[in-house]
Specification:
The complex is a heterodimer of chains A (296) and B (153). By secondary structure, chain A is an alpha+beta fold. Chain A has helices at residues 14-24, 37-42, 78-83, 85-90, 92-99, 104-107, 112-118, 125-131, 149-152, 227-233, 240-247, 264-286; strands spanning 7-9, 28-31, 50-53, 63-65, 69-73, 135-140, 143-148, 153-155, 158-159, 166-173, 179-185, 195-203, 209-217, 224-225. Chain A is 33% helix and 24% strand. In chain A, strand 6 (135-140) and strand 7 form a beta hairpin. The radius of gyration of chain A is 19 Å and the shape is globular. Chain B contains 5 helices and 5 strands; from the N terminus they run E-E-H-E-E-E-H-H-H-H. In chain B, a hairpin with a 2-residue loop joins strand 1 (4-10) and strand 2 (13-19). Classes of the chains: A alpha+beta (296), B alpha+beta (153).
């Protein structure tokens, strides 16, 4: 398990990193936290001849929470984000998702941006970012562009980031008063999810749902938004029957992934259960009465 | 392939090593500095035996290249105790928290970092902390008990 030889460069300016990535094209890979790329290199699934280490670049990490939005530098470590009390208070859904990402020792190095740019179909953070309407800033030779999360994730390990570009910042609009839940099924604590669900749900003064987001991970190449389920809930008062009915409206063909750990049939069976639990938790947190404590 | 010279602090002492870029930090600690207390197991970030502390935080020594450690402060199991064992190490011995010992350096460093941050860590926090460290001998229970004995004072 040794990576193939490569040349190592650690620029301190973002424009130098971009120039290096542009010059070397597909031969080069940017190195963020290394918690996915390095194992792939060890197994020789990735054999870049040039590694552009982003860890020395000034200004790519940090968290800013204000009234309109939360901005997270792409190189912010997952551990730092998880420990940031202002971030957890502003975006409890993201904090819950982060707690499911790996282990203390992988979160100490792993970055928010690295996980998003890697876009593993089983990863938690892309699902949370979709549910939170995050906007991702991509920097390249021609400056910056901003891409909403639902157009950023193109498929398994595929994003809107092109060769010679880097994800540099994530901007998440502030959330108002609402309920949230992030639940997953994994084989062991800290493993990638077999399937994960992120839910946000808001109740109007009359107790009717007036905004809802349901996003599933681990079911297709990119996170899947469950619009049929969302439509079932809008304008209604959430009760256990309604939440189960909404969860039941996930289209079977939206669930494509299959592996020896979890068959497509298993994922199709378990997705509505997970969504029902997440909806129940989110609705209860939003203040819906009579839902009791959902199953763990 | 070009070799790079890296200046870093290991166990409080300034060190300079010359490595290939593809050498992991854990491998470089073993081969260049002879600090073989850091073990290498799966070498792809799953087992946790290569855990070392960088800036006081546990990291996977196999998922960081040694060249990336330029200017950083690394602590290995050799740097944890002086002449006597630390209270955590002593507790490991007392609670039979190891058998073959292969996972032990990673377990001790991971729990050391937890107890530095959270001196009164409970069993949930302890289990969460070592969730990324595999042990095939103990069944984990004696390891949790050893850490709990320290956190409960």
């Amino acid at each position: 398990m040794k990576p193939a030889p490569f040349d190592y460069v650690a620029p301190i300016a973002l424009h130098d990193a971009i120039a290096l990535l542009e010059r070397h094209g597909d031969e080069a890979r940017p190195l963020a936290g290394g918690q996915s790329l390095v194992p792939m290199m060890a197994a020789r699934l990735a054999r870049p001849t040039v590694i552009v280490d982003l860890n020395r670049i000034v200004g790519l990490s940090g968290i800013v929470v204000d009234r309109e939005a939360v901005r997270i530098g792409a190189m912010t470590r997952q551990a730092e984000a998880l420990a940031a009390a202002d971030l957890s208070a502003a975006l409890p859904l993201l904090a819950q998702a982060l707690a499911e990402v790996g282990h203390p020792a992988t979160r100490a190095r792993g970055t928010i941006g690295g996980s998003l740019a890697h876009a593993d179909p089983a990863a938690e953070l892309p699902v949370a970012m979709m549910a939170l309407d995050a906007v991702l800033t991509i920097s390249g030779p021609n400056g910056e562009r901003r891409v909403p999360a639902d157009r950023f994730f193109a498929g398994a390990f595929e994003t809107a980031v092109k060769t010679g570009e880097l994800l540099t910042e994530i901007r998440i609009p502030a959330v108002g008063s609402e309920g949230h839940a992030f639940l997953e099924i994994a084989r062991r604590k800290g493993d990638f999810a077999v399937i994960s669900a992120a839910v946000r749900l808001r109740l109007a003064d009359d107790g009717r749902c007036d905004a809802v987001r349901i996003v599933l991970g681990g079911v297709a190449g990119a996170p899947v938004r469950c619009t049929e389920s969302e439509e079932r809930l809008l304008g209604e008062r959430p009760g256990s029957g309604l939440l189960a009915a909404a969860a039941g409206r996930i289209p079977a063909d939206a669930i494509e992934l299959h592996s020896h750990h979890a068959s497509r049939g298993y994922r199709r069976d378990v997705a509505p259960v997970l969504v029902r639990r997440a909806l129940t938790l989110a609705a209860a947190r939003a203040g819906a009465p009579g839902l009791g404590v959902p199953a763990p | 392939m070009k070799r790079c010279t890296v200046a870093l602090t290991v166990n409080g002492r300034g060190s300079e090593i010359t490595v290939e870029p593809r050498q992991s930090l854990a491998e470089a600690l073993r081969t260049e500095l002879n600090l073989t207390g850091t073990h290498l197991g799966c070498e792809h970030g799953v087992c946790g035996v290569c855990t070392v502390l960088v800036g006081g935080q546990p990291i996977r020594g196999c998922l960081m290249f040694a060249v990336q450690a330029q200017g950083l402060d690394v602590t290995t199991i050799e740097g944890l105790s002086g002449a006597a064992l630390t209270p955590l190490q002593e507790s490991f011995r007392r609670h039979h928290a190891l058998q073959c010992g292969f996972c032990t350096p990673g377990m001790v460093l991971t729990l050391h970092a937890l107890l530095e941050r959270e001196p009164a860590a409970d069993a949930v926090a302890i289990r969460e902390a070592i969730s990324g460290n595999l042990c095939r001998c103990t069944g984990y229970q004696p390891i949790v008990e050893a850490a709990l004995a320290v956190s409960r004072g």
